[in-house]
Amino acid sequence: MAKNTICVWYDKDAEAAARFYAATFPDSAVGAVIRAPGDYPDGKQGDVLVVEFTVAGIPCIGLNGGPAFKHNEAFSFQIATDTQEETDRYWNAIVGNGGQESECGWCKDKWGVSWQITPRVLSKALSAGGGQAKRAFDAMMTMRKIDIAAIEAARRG
User: Fold this and answer.
1) Stretch 41-52: mean pLDDT, rounded?
2) Contact criterion met (CB below 8 Å) for 131 and 123
3) Among 21, 44, 118, 150, whose Cα sits 20 to 30 Å from the Cα of 51?
4) Are 34 and 51 contacting, i.e. CB atoms less than 8 angstroms apart?
5) What is the rounded distance in angstroms from the CA atom of residue 138 to the CA atom of residue 8?
6) For residue 83, what are the contacts with CB-CB under 8 A and spacing of at least 6?
7) CA–CA separation, 152 and 155 (whole Å)
8) CB 36: neighbour CB atoms within 10 A?
9) Which pairing describes strands 58-64 and 6-10: parallel, antiparallel, or unpaired?
10) Three-state DSSP string of the chain
């Protein structure tokens, strides 16, 4: 296990989520699946407790902690993309697998985890400042999934 690992709380589907992420994003994998060695108040021996996984190179653990806590936008994975095809692929994988669209490049997977699918061209436009940042920002504010061609057009003015 890495020295610093992100722990993501799931009701009961940590393994399914980890396998989906590993199949969707490069440099992602499922590691150890740790099962309960005995019965406990909310489960039984053999139930999955913790799943070690990596998402785009970031070490994580999925904890099947039960329904007590829900995900919200205060935590998200941000995935930088280089092309519209890559943006579409990740967005469509998340939304098309029971997830939901949100605003400005954000979406949620079917487990409620938030994702920002962010083309690098948008980040570059915003960090450039001035009029091109304002135009790119205004264009982004009208979008759900980011349209790279529209961001580039707005950036140019």
Assistant:
1) 94
2) no
3) 118
4) yes
5) 32
6) 119, 148
7) 5
8) 16
9) parallel
10) CCCCCEEEEECCCHHHHHHHHHHHCCCCEEEEEEECCCCECCECCCCEEEEEEEECCEEEEEEECCCCCCCCCCCEEEEEECCHHHHHHHHHHHHHCCCEECCCCEEECCCCCEEEEEEHHHHHHHHHCHHHHHHHHHHHCCCCCCCHHHHHHHHHC
At 20, list the tokens: 């989906």
- What are 100's strand-pairing partners? 108
In whole angstroms, give the CA distance from residue 84 to residue 87.
5
Residue count of the chain, please give it: 157
CA angle 13, 92, 31 (to 5 degrees): 35
In the chain, the largest separation of any two C-alpha atoms, in whole Å, equals 63
Q: What is the pLDDT of residue 41?
A: 85
Cα–Cα distances in angstroms (integers) from residue 35 to residues 52, 95, 126, in the given order: 12, 29, 45
Q: Could you tell me if 109 and 94 are in contact, meaning their C-beta atoms sit under 8 angstroms apart?
A: yes
